[in-house]
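Consortium newsletter contribution from the modelling node. Members have asked for a concrete example of what our holo predictions look like. Here is one, prepared for the zinc ion complex that several groups have been discussing at recent meetings.
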Amino acid sequence: MNIIELTPSIFIYQDDNYYLVNSCCVILNSELIFIDTGLNDAVAKKFVNKMKNRTDMKDIKLVLTHAHGDHISGMKPFERCQIIVSKYFRASLNENMKRYGWGEKRKKYYNSLNLDILAEQKTIGDEDNQIIFKQMGGHSLESIYGYFPKDKVLFAGDNLLSKMPQYFPFDNTNLDDWISGLQEWEKMDIDWVVVGHGDVVKKDHITRVREFFEELVLFLERSASEKLSVEQVLSHENCPTYFEEDPENWTNMGIEIYYNRMIE
Ligand SMILES: [Zn+2]
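And here is the predicted structure:
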């Protein structure tokens, strides 16, 4: 297991088995704060044990940035600890269970977990050394992000991806909330962003993504007012293209689903 040390307090495990999904660990005073679990129990256990051994710390907490399977499927090592999630987490999780046909056993398992719901914001640690988690929405209604002021690091969840396009084909994606959140980040003091998938980025990536989404929303609103069909939208010369490679056409997929919801 290759663990990336971003700063002496921040460690990232990136799994190349599924779109470079990241799980993170922040050393905060005398405890370890994990952000997202990664793909399965075995991977999560390995990461947790490595971090416990490395730091000689036992106390752990978990924060889940959102309720998609690639971020919450390694719950085993966290069953007994505090698990911090958005106030919209449970509702979104239930929707996802239906959508992806998760079995009864898995459903019961998630329902048995003791989730600590954050209203709008939650701070862990003391004034000199703290991490703040905040409701954002955007990629999905229950998306939250974290900020660690000491190292000026933002934990974006899937509200920011790198080396691949942004992913927005969900029923509960809201591009207006997403853009507002990105604007908020641009005002913050940030050196590094740990993204949901891909390599850490600098702040300019936030701006490029925000500009892409702004252009896209304007274009889709104009298209809706002109009553264009989805086909016309996708083949339109002004339809924005994403600035990184998009081998699986995520952008078109997102546009199609988002636009259909706009005009329905
Ligand atoms: Zn993801």
